[in-house]
Design brief:
- With 235 residues, the chain is of the alpha/beta class.
- It has eight helices and five strands, in the order βαβαβααβαβααα.
- The chain has helices at residues 11-22, 40-52, 62-65, 97-111, 134-147, 165-174, 197-209, 222-233, and strands at 3-6, 26-33, 56-60, 116-118, 155-157.
- The chain has a five-stranded parallel β-sheet with strand order 3-2-1-4-5, sandwiched between helices.
- Helix 5 (134-147) links the parallel strand 4 and strand 5.
- The N and C termini lie far apart (44 Å).
- The model has no long low-confidence stretch (mean pLDDT 88).
- It is an enzyme of class 6 (ligase).
- Its cofactor is Zn(2+).
- This is 7-cyano-7-deazaguanine synthase.
């Protein structure tokens, strides 16, 4: 397998990059600039590609992103704080984002002679993001097999789709990922906020996995409050 990995520069995709590199299956990284407010992740993806010595492709789809309005990740909308299981996190959805990125990635992989598109979606994304769910991943892979029929054979590899982020945290330790050099926070400040959904999920996963998190956060204790709130509301 030689994979084109969609790499945002975040904890999940950088961990998968290191896993694929260790398995000698990483062909290149593909990062999308879709007008997201947390652009520091693009630099993190570039550093990852340099560290692993693979090509880094940056695709500017900002003109598309500008049409996908209504998300806290692209518009001037306040980023919600809390756990991904809370209803307020729906404002972080960018409509059809993964479907758009994957469609482009399959074309790029075919053109570059790579046989796999890799994606680090995981079980923690299922509640809020429909294009991270197992059925979507399965059906999208089938659709692309037909789209490229007779042109190229490109598989879709999403090893964490049925797992939670704790497994990714364990892989981060196993493959010696420099976690502090990844960027997940939706706020896009100088350091991770510790309060947005992706920060809360990241800290929680590392804690549950028993893995040290060297990332500096403005608030490293808020996640406990967010998790407790979700547990209290769960029947």
């Amino acid at each position: 397998m030689k994979a084109l990995l969609i790499c945002s520069g975040g904890f999940d995709s950088v961990t998968l990059a290191h896993r694929l590199a260790a398995e000698q299956s990483l062909g290149a990284l593909l990062t999308f600039d879709y007008g997201q407010r947390h652009k520091k992740e693009i630099d993190a993806a570039r550093h990852c590609a340099e560290r692993l010595k693979v090509p880094h492709l940056v695709m500017d789809i900002g003109h598309i992103g500008r049409q996908l309005s209504g998300s806290a990740l692209t518009d001037d909308i306040e980023v919600p704080h809390g756990h991904y299981s809370e209803e307020n996190m729906k404002v972080t959805v960018v409509p059809n984002r993964n479907a758009i990125m994957l469609t482009i990635a399959f074309g790029v992989a075919a053109a570059r002679g790579l046989d796999t598109v890799a994606l680090a979606v995981h079980g923690g994304d299922h509640f809020i993001y429909p294009d991270c769910r197992p059925d979507f991943i399965r059906l999208f892979g089938e659709m692309q097999a037909r789209a490229l029929d007779g042109v190229a054979e490109v598989a879709l590899f999403a090893p964490y789709v049925d797992a939670d982020k704790t497994e990714i945290a364990r892989d981060a330790a196993r493959f010696e990922v420099p976690v502090a050099e990844t960027w997940s926070c939706y706020e896009g400040g100088e350091v991770h906020c510790g309060r947005c959904g992706t920060c809360v999920e990241r800290i929680e996963a590392m804690a549950l996995a028993g893995v040290e998190d060297p990332t500096p956060y403005l608030d490293k204790e808020y996640w406990l409050e967010a998790v407790a709130r979700v547990k209290k509301c769960t029947p």
